[in-house]
Structures are given as C-alpha cells and as structure tokens.
Amino acid sequence: MAYVVTENCIRCKFMDCVEVCPVDCFYAGENFLVINPDECIDCGVCEPECPAEAIFPDSDGRAEAWIETNARLAGLWPNITRKGEQPADAEEWRDKPDKAGLLSEEPHKD
Ligand code: SF4
Ligand code: SF4
C-alpha cells in the first residue's frame, strides 16, 4: 500500500507534506507533487498535514484515478524534501474543482 497525491494539489503545492515524510518519497513537478509508491512506507503522517486535503491512501476510492499518475511521474520528476516557495495564487486554486486538465508534466525547477 501507499499514499497518493490527488487533484486538489494541482497549482496548490503548499508542500507541508514533504517536510514530514520520514522516507522522503515526494517528487515535484511544475504545479503538482507525487508520492513514489515503491518508497512510501504507508505511515500516513502526510495525510493530515496537507491543507488541500489532497492525500489519500490508495485503498480510498478518491485516490484511484491518481495511482498510475503518482507512480509514473515519480519516475520522471526530482525528489523534494524541503518546503519551497508556494505559488502566489495557491490559496485561490486550493478548492477549485476540475483541475486535472491543468496538470503539468514538466519537472519542478529551482
Ligand atoms: S501539502 Fe498537499 S497540496 Fe501541498 S504539495 Fe503536499 S500534497 Fe500538494
Ligand atoms: S504515507 Fe508516510 S511514507 Fe508515505 S508519503 Fe506520506 S509521509 Fe511519506
């Protein structure tokens, strides 16, 4: 089992999650984060830390559509362990529905 980052993280990227993960298994794209399912130890610590409530266990139906995306993009994006600068308009995007089409597959750049 693993935890999965889902749609509500898109353009939000508060990154509170990365600071608490004991095994540093978050990977960063331009406007989204994913969890590497092969590294996640299923501790659940990140789930309540996410202000956007975007993290669910893969057994939760809300995670289902995002399981493949997390696994695939974790292999393409750089690892992230420290909270960076969040987008200036993150609050504005926090609870917007239907953000899936806005997901950028570009990796995060410093
Ligand atoms: S805290 Fe939540 S919204 Fe922020 S980057 Fe992590 S998963 Fe995405
Ligand atoms: S469940 Fe634990 S190991 Fe998995 S991503 Fe969250 S904090 Fe990291």
From TrEMBL:
Its cofactor is [4Fe-4S] cluster; [3Fe-4S] cluster. The keyword Transferase does not apply. Keywords: 3Fe-4S, 4Fe-4S, Electron transport, Iron, Iron-sulfur, Metal-binding, Repeat, Transport. It comes from the Bacteria. Residues 83-110 are annotated as: Disordered. Pfam families: DUF3470 (PF11953), Fer4 (PF00037), Fer4_4 (PF12800). GO terms for molecular function: 3 iron, 4 sulfur cluster binding; 4 iron, 4 sulfur cluster binding; electron transfer activity; metal ion binding. Gene3D superfamilies: 3.30.70.20. The keyword Thylakoid does not apply. Residues 1-30, 31-60 form the 4Fe-4S ferredoxin-type domain. Ferredoxins are iron-sulfur proteins that transfer electrons in a wide variety of metabolic reactions. NCBIfam families: FdxA_Protbact. This is Ferredoxin. It comes from Neokomagataea tanensis.
